[in-house]
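Hey, quick one: can you model this chain's 3D structure?
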Amino acid sequence: MASLFDYIDWRGDLLFSEVPLNEVDSLILSQISYIDFQDIVCPEHDGELLSLREATRLYLRRHRGEAPYLGKIVPPEIVSLTAKASKSRRFSDLRLCGYVNRISDEDQTQFSAVTFQLGTGGSYVAYRGTDDSLVGWKENFNMSFMHPVPAQLSAADYLERTATALSGALWVGGHSKGGNLAVYAAVKCSPSVKERIVAVYNNDGPGFDREFIEGADYASIRPKIATIVPHSSVVGMLLEHEEIYEVVKSNAAGLLQHNAFSWEVLGGKFVHLDTVSGESRLIDSTLKGWLDEMTPEAREEFVEALFETLSDTNVKTLTDLSAEKVKLVKAWGTLDAKSRSVILKCISLFLKQGTKGFRKPTK
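Sure thing. Here's the predicted structure for all 363 residues.
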């Protein structure tokens, strides 16, 4: 079945002015946002514009022909996809601006975004998902008890600044955490910006708490939200989604379906299915049941204890952590009794919820 690469071969000769942006284009631009355009793309929206062709050329030259490493969990195919897109008529002349990449241990923030001017008088605002940094993963965990997290506030501010600097229609999207940020920004932006938004694409990104999705701000943008998840989605089923989500077919198994390069494409759309798998529903009910059993304070205690263990290894990324497993074991041994008790209790509760799920028939 066709992939994102095949889509560029098939649709790559048509400009956005000839065929409007669709769900596959959105995912491609969301993947390109994982590229480190630091000191290549201007951080301001009204500064020098750079085409995707030129930005990609400079990025690859920076690495002197070596394959850039994006981290333990970021698919390396993103570099190849970006290179292929940059040579196509459809994507090559897109103008990039407003590149931001901020990681802060102090604020527990990982936020990155870039804007693509489509050449139609409109722009696509792409939010990056979680990268290789441990602080980014801690911020993800913080979503279970903190509302909003710093990256969500940054996303809302970024969209407002983009709308102020650029005229025309707006498309907003992202993959994984980036999809969550896209929805949050669209919900919290001013009414005048909401009117300019054509669509919001949440590609397998987590949802929100019940209070957030029952608010008037959410209702005002809900018809424009397209939540897309693979049929064995885990990440995209986390927390709550009020909008109807679209299910797409993936050629991978389980959690690996979060990798967007496994999503199957047919023409200008994904291959859509009727519903998520029983496996996805089981994991979803297990995770939701686990969180429901824990107060926000208990969730915070668990996250702090877990990342205290990780921080004691003095590593900053998942890549470093995977290479320092001995340090992780030693850090666990030096953790105080209360923190170890909190972690073990939460793991035990999760396993208990999983056992309950297996006992229930899947409808």
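One thing worth noting: The chain has two domains: 4-276, 284-359.
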